[in-house]
């Protein structure tokens, strides 16, 4: 709860300090005394947008210090996140310069303004201006219905959504991976086919190179073989005939000399070798020239060299690459089975989410009708009798709208008067009507998990009599659970408060100043009497009567 609020050089307030207590505190005073300044100061402490108008004329800066005392795990988490040491009290300080720029501090540590704003979302529920109305906060109107729905039904939607999102994520990831891999796979398949067409084997490059050289020099080879064959075997006399003659001549006298004998043996060997040589030359001469084969081998050799250069590998490396790609392509074919399986699981998850989300939609529609009916008597007592309220629950089956809270769009709609069209609450209702609607929600037990402090401004605009008593009663009831700060012109509302602060305005040395005074019982009776119209004896008796009724209200 807020235990202290100190305001310096803020608008018409030179300096004021309030010690605040649990329960309902009402702020009263004449019109124009500066009651709304108090709301602005509270807003400043919790991160509202600063205004140069907040700085008192002639002052260099305005300053607001609010002290918070209480345990809240959300606040502790926020402070830890900001590396701010946890202490028994939380001191919020906001300094606003003449130019409208401001600085924010928590326990003396400078912080960004958004940190104060996050604290404000936890601590402060400000009713009086639309931008601060909790009823206007995203998701709050849906939460009003969800609080009345079985938690198992809501949990089922959350679980179904998480499962659907998980399966969809897995499928998307697989498709993305496959999309990228498919491009690679296409390239691999094409390249693999090119390599396989080369019939790569170890030493293929040298083999092809030799075959190509042979084909390119076919004519020269034929010419060489032909001339050699003619000299050795076909000429008159041929080399074989001359060697045979020499052998015959040597054979006549070889028995008389070892050298001739050895020479004769060598001549026999030469004749035998020539006998083997000539068939070989004839075989060469018989080889046909295949120009088409030569072109094929040349092209194959070029492709092989290109492949070796592209992949920076020799023939053995290419063979390993072929085996590796074949294995990877086989694995990709298997992944297609996984995608089909995930697609089937996604279809089932979509069906499950649609089933439980649809069930939640129906439950919300039913709760909306029930809550609208429950609000009716309280709205009647709060002078909202002409206003009709309904909860519009619309299914959004577009998957982009799916969430852990279902697929519904929930809005409170208002019919201001019979025959008028239904319009959104934020468009039609005034600040006072919104504040009273919050009280009606409180009265029918629809509010829970609210911020720790509720501030009501303009809550009593346009009401009086028993309606004002009803407002005071509901505010006092709310004060039993939260700290409630109320700015009011009505003695009925003020009489129901646990504490009262009177805001007054006076002139000093030509300047207008605003003061805040926490009043005792006697002073409070006089303030109530003033609010009734005077300080005469009758007004004082009436004030005593109203304070007595307020005490009864608080004791209930």
TrEMBL record:
GO terms for molecular function: ATP binding. GO terms for cellular component: bacterial nucleoid. The keyword Nucleotide-binding applies. GO terms for biological process: DNA recombination; DNA repair; SOS response. Keywords: ATP-binding, DNA damage, DNA repair, Nucleotide-binding. InterPro entries: DNA_recomb/repair_RecN, P-loop_NTPase, RecF/RecN/SMC_N. The keyword DNA damage applies. Residues 2-508 form the RecF/RecN/SMC N-terminal domain. It comes from the Bacteria. Belongs to the RecN family. May be involved in recombinational repair of damaged DNA. PANTHER family: DNA REPAIR PROTEIN RECN. This is DNA repair protein RecN. It comes from Mariprofundus aestuarium.
